Amino acid sequence: TTIPPFDPANVQGDILAGLPKKVQHYLLFQIDDNVQAFRQRLKLLIPLITTTTQVMDDRSKIAANKKAAQEQGKPAPLLKISGVNISFSHTGLVKLGITDDIGDSAFTAGQLADAQNLGDPGSGTPFVPNWIPAFKNPIHGVVIISGDSELTVTATQAIVNGIFNIGAHNATMHEVLTIKGQVRPGAEKGHEHFGFLDGISQPAVQDVDTKPNPGQETVGQGVILCGRDHDVVAGTTTPVARPPWALDGSFLAFRYLFQLVPEFDTFLKNNPIKSTGLTPEQGSELLGARLVGRWKSGAPIDLFPLQDNPAAGTDPSQNNNFRYDFPDDPKTQDRCPFAAHTRKTNPRADLEDLGFPTENRRIIRRGVQFGPEVTPEEAKSGKTKFGRGLIFAAYQSNIVNGFQFIQHSWANTVGFPIQKPVQPGFDPIIGQQTDLAIRTLSGTDPNNQSATLSLPAEWVVPKGGEYFFSPSIPALRSKFAL
Ligand code: HEM
């Protein structure tokens, strides 16, 4: 069978383009027993689903609005933009009677069954992670609703509720939980809660992102979209066997990750890197940058190891243009600790120059922050009182190759990156182990690189998650809806 040519109008918009958002709700749902009725209502949702083509249109409108305002020297008026996407878990597919083997064992088993392997803290036999109850029961799917404001998103969610008759006597689904995220305010826009600019490094997708930034690697479409070129079994050129309706769908690894921000800040404050010419504040700032691999501004420490360069942090021509391949990079941690978060999760030349390609390990990260800003009281006490963190949402054609591998075999594996003169240790941001023991990494002190630093057991606390499949629009029409 010949595969139809790629058409962005067939792909749900969050995957390749990212739904534009100030606010984003994740409506986690269970399908009710009248499955045929659910399928009929799903048919009504399809025209509301934002495709890649529509997101690209929305983004052009946003850019034009901003430009026009700049030319008139006025602040840009807020454009009303809203977006809707839908994805299903394996239990959701089973509920719908869709039983084809879709070709991803992590998806089929579900994330609850994967929690121990991911290193999520928990206990017992069988193992139960320390998650909130909502995620310990089957979740059949998620509707992602995005927009320019809480008002727009709430209004759109009301339309979705109406379509599925949520809460009515003839409901076809019910809400398990809605997780509400929002971009951080003011100058913190685009920064995650520890304070670091996020969403900088994404793979460019072949024939979609046609003008990659310097240093941005292009991956085959099949690394993100099922059934496309390079959707292969890891380390081989063998295409993964998938049913025809999986074409142009993508797997979504969803994680509800709390961040202990006052605790993180206190640690940095108490453990500044001591070096001639550095004030304690600068030493703390440098430690933070070396844990993440970037300064809070986004500037990569592989390019700017000693001092931040805020202009470079937000400059796409500079902020991804590095590979950990300066002559001193492979064997020393002068510039960047081997275990820094960005190096662990995308080791670039550390693997590629040893002959191991990393193309099939790449993921596209979406997601958004949740929870309030740190209060003065929390900052003073160094203790989290209000829950906040990251709704992590990452797309890939293969969870086993992508998210699962990055978390388990890279972030949590102390010997990774391989072939280094000292043991790298845990990814200080997301590296974890089920028993909540102290974590260590080497190389945080550039003047004593084999010394290890002991970190608290967790700064990032996983409280739930699931693996979903985000079908193409044609698949939603022909396979999911009635
Ligand atoms: C990059 C923070 C969870 C994978 C980054 C960056 C920051 C960050 C600040 C640098 C910005 C950029 O390069 O785009 C966080 C925080 C997390 C978190 C605070 C938890 C609350 C995760 C998880 C994974 C992950 C769970 C996957 C298992 C990545 C990847 C990159 C990245 C692949 C890009 C690295 C590169 O290409 O250079 N993260 N992250 N992150 N993160 Fe995370």
Please provide a written account of the structure:
A hairpin with a 4-residue loop joins strand 3 (122-123) and strand 4 (128-129). The chain has 15 helices and 15 strands. Strands 9, 10, 11, 12 and 15 form a 5-stranded antiparallel beta sheet that branches. It has a 4-stranded antiparallel beta sheet with strand order 2-5-1-6. Strands 3-4 form a two-stranded antiparallel sheet. It has helices at residues 13-16, 35-45, 52-71, 90-95, 105-109, 111-118, 150-163, 261-270, 280-292, 310-313, 341-345, 349-352, 376-381, 403-411, 473-480, and strands spanning 23-31, 82-88, 122-123, 128-129, 141-147, 173-182, 204-205, 218-219, 250-259, 364-365, 368-370, 389-396, 439-442, 452-455, 460-470. It has one domain (1-259, 330-482). The protein is of the alpha+beta class. Bound molecules: protoporphyrin IX containing FE (HEM).
Give the helix level as a range of percent. 25-40%
- Residue share in β-strands: 15-25%
Bound molecules: protoporphyrin IX containing FE
Shape call: globular
Q: Give the C-alpha Rg.
A: 22 Å
> Could you give the count of β-strands?
15
Q: How does the major sheet shape up?
A: 5 strands, antiparallel
pLDDT below 50 for ≥5 consecutive residues: which ranges? none
**H/E element sequence:** HEHHEHHHEEEHEEEEHHHHHEEHEHEEEH
Average residue pLDDT: 97
Helix count equals 15
Q: Structural class, from helix and strand content?
A: alpha+beta
First-residue to last-residue Cα separation: 25 Å
Count of domains: 1
